[in-house]
Amino acid sequence: MKTYKLNTTQKLPISIDEAWDFFSSPLNLKEITPKEMGFDITSAHNPNEKAYAGQIITYLLTPLLGIPIKWMTEITHVKDNDYFVDEQRFGPYALWHHTHKFKEIPGGIEMFDTVHYALPYGVIGQLLHAILVKKKLEKIFEYRFEVLKNKFGEYKSY
């Protein structure tokens, strides 16, 4: 099984507490996911609930050709105001391990996303990655970058 890695970094002019409040709430995922993904959280969540180890989140999305896919992730590790990890338990990937890391910097925070993932179906999965999946994931994170910049403002270097 071939494993891939995607790294992104973004600086935002917000406090670590504000960043944590936003990013550790599953209810904000829809806002930062492209509309064409048809992304909906199907599990119930308290609006004040933040990520915790053992938290299960279920989704329904339509990433390709309007075909619905069910997805389940578990928050496996959490250190408040520092990082959390979500891992797929059920869904389209053979492996999905996503670390969300936050660091205070002068004038805001720096946010790091690292996704390790693999596709099922051997060589067919590798071909799908090359022609479709890699570009789709990159576009999702590009969309997030723009939404977050519009929501929180552009980071100014100090």
Question: How would you explain this protein's 3D organization?
Answer:
The structure is a single chain. It contains 2 helices and 7 strands; from the N terminus they run βαββββββα. It is of the alpha+beta class and 158 residues long. It has a 7-stranded antiparallel sheet, with helices on one face. A hairpin with a 4-residue loop joins strand 5 and strand 6.
Q: Which sheet architecture does the biggest sheet show?
A: 7 strands, antiparallel
Please tell me how large the radius of gyration is: 16 Å
| Number of strand segments | 7
Report how far the terminal alpha carbons are from each other.
43 Å
SSE run: EHEEEEEEH
Fraction of helical residues: 10-25%
Q: How would the global form be characterised?
A: globular
Q: Structural class from helices and strands?
A: alpha+beta
Number of helices: 2
Strand order in the sheet with the most strands:
1-7-6-5-4-3-2
Mean pLDDT: 96
* Low confidence ranges: none
Share of residues in strands: 35-45%
Descriptive labels:
2 helices, 41% strand, 158 residues, alpha+beta, globular
Q: What would you say about this model in short?
A:
Helices cover 25% and strands 41% of the residues. The protein is α+β, with helices and mostly antiparallel strands and 158 residues long. The longest helix has 31 residues.
